[in-house]
Each structure stands twice: as structure tokens, then as C-alpha cells.
């Protein structure tokens, strides 16, 4: 009988030891899984931090481009185009017959260098909107320019020179300085093929996206020299650059660039700004959305942002709950193992 009791005691000890070992293994396994889950969480947090940092760097670069170069350049280019447009409207009111003859020629064969036929086709507003012509060799036509030569002290001639001088001094030279300083470092290049579609007149030119800004700098420089070396000395031979035509597409070049970086801002979650590229031509300086359209756009964007934000929060919450569930399972296994050991140990 004592031998049976001893054997039972030995079996109990063996079982007890086995269960203690099993419990220890379960605990170690649970600890290992917990460590692995924590490591995975750290990796996820690190990945999120890296993504956030990269996002912030992109946003900072976009903000730098918009604030230092593209924003001011766009404003200067739009103001120059608008000012010249108003000067053309004024010319039509003063010289309606001469203006009609000039516009008829612009809209048919076009006007090229030295009052010759245009090389870019008819200079209509529609073709300008489509980026199909660019070089403007005269603002008001040779007939009206000759009237200013014949009577440089006329009211129109004085107003013409005054407004051209204002264009160059107020916006032209500042724009030229911006392009020369930041044109290569802070310009937003975008997609080359899309640019060719938007501006077909530049598609075959080797300078492509550099073309209009460089032409603008040259036009400003020559016009400024006419002012200083002729008009300031009472010489009234030239009223528009002879060598460097005005690039009509420079307005659209910069507004299109501004639209592109605003879209990037939206994609990166910085802001919901929007600039609508204006299909601009001389005589039309209205652009962008109406107040009602802007309000509707902002309301729609706010709702989409709210919806996307809620979905993101729900997904993150579900993921965390899933991780906690996994950890809880391992904790239960360890607890059950410990309880089993305690119940089998002989009292």
C-alpha cells in the first residue's frame, strides 16, 4: 500500500512539474508574442512619422514656391495683362475706325515683325485661349503708332506712354527680377506632355516651359530701354519693342502653374485652395469662380474632409482593438495554464 502511495506521489510530482513547465512555456510564448506586437506597433509608428515628415517637407517646398516665386509672378503677370487690355480698350474708344482696321487684320492673317504678316496664324481670342499663338508684335497697330509719332503731345499719346511706363515700373521690372532669380529653382515644372497639350504654340520649341518667362524678361528689358533712351529724351520713334514681342501666353503659364501647386496642396492635406485658370485674352479680365461657386466648393470640400477623417479614425480604432484582442488571447492562455497547474497540484 505504501508502495502504491509513493508511486502516486511520484506521478503527481511528474504531472505537477510538467504543468509548471507548460505554464512557463505558455508565459514565455505570450511574452514573445507581446514583444512582437509591440515591435510591430513601433514600426508602424515609425513609418507614420517618416510619412508625416516627408509630407511636411513636400508642403514646405510647395509653400516656398507659391510664396516666394509663383504667387507674386502670377499676380504681376495678370496685372500686366489686365493693364494692357484696358489700354487697348481705351485705344478703341479714341480711334474706333483705325482700331477696327487693326483688329480685322489681327483676326485674319495676324500681324508679325515690322508690321508684316503673322507667322502664328490669326490672332483671335479663341486661338489665344487654346495656346495657339503667343507673340504680339504691336499693341495698337502701326497706323495708331504713326499718329503718336506725328503728334507725341496728343492726349492719347501721353496716356499711352504713361500707362506703358506704369506697366514696366510697377509690375514689369519686379516680375523680371523674380524670373531671373527664381525661374530655375522655384518654378513648378509639372508634366511635359500635358504642358505641350495646353500650350501647343510652345510644343516644338526647345525651351518649352522656359519659353514664355524668358520672352517676358526680354520684352520688359527692351520696353524699359525704349522708355529710358527714347521717351525720357523726347524721342518718339518706338512705341513697342521691335526685337522682342510680348508673350501673350505668360499669363496662362503662371496661372496654370499656380493651379497645379494648389492641387498638390489639396492632395497633401494642407488646404483647399483653388485657382481656376482663366482663358484670358485682351479685352477680358474676368477670371475665377463666383462667390456662390466658391461657397459651394468649400462646403463640399469640408464634407468630404469630414467623411474621410471619420473613416480614417474608425479604421485606426478597429486596428487597435484587433491588436488588443490578440494580446488578450495570449493572456487568457497563460491564465488558464496557471489555473490548471494549481488545480492538479496535490493538497
Protein topology:
Blueprint (H helix, E strand, L loop, with lengths): L1 H93 L1 H11 L18 H5 L5 E2 L5 H9 L4 H28 L9 H7 L12 H19 L16 E2 L2 H18 L23 H54 L3
Antiparallel strand pairs: 1-2
Helix pairs in contact: 1-2, 1-5, 1-8, 1-9, 5-7
Protein described:
It contains nine helices and two strands; from the N terminus they run αααβααααβαα. With 347 residues, it is mostly helical. The protein has a domain at 49-274. The chain is rod-shaped and about 130 Å long. The protein starts with a helix and ends with a helix.
Our estimate of the beta-strand percent is under 5%
Determine the number of helices (DSSP H or I, runs of at least 4 residues): 9
| Spatial gap, N to C terminus | 20 Å
Class by SSE composition: mainly alpha
Q: What shape does the CA trace take? A: rod-shaped
* Rg estimate, integer Å: 37 Å
Average residue-wise pLDDT? 81
Pick out the low-confidence regions. Answer: 271-290, 326-347
Number of strands: 2
Percent range of helical residues:
over 70%
How is the main sheet built?
2 strands, antiparallel
**Spatial order of the strands in the main sheet?**
1-2
Helix-strand string: HHHEHHHHEHH
Summarize this structure briefly.
Residues 271-290 and 326-347 have low confidence and may be disordered.
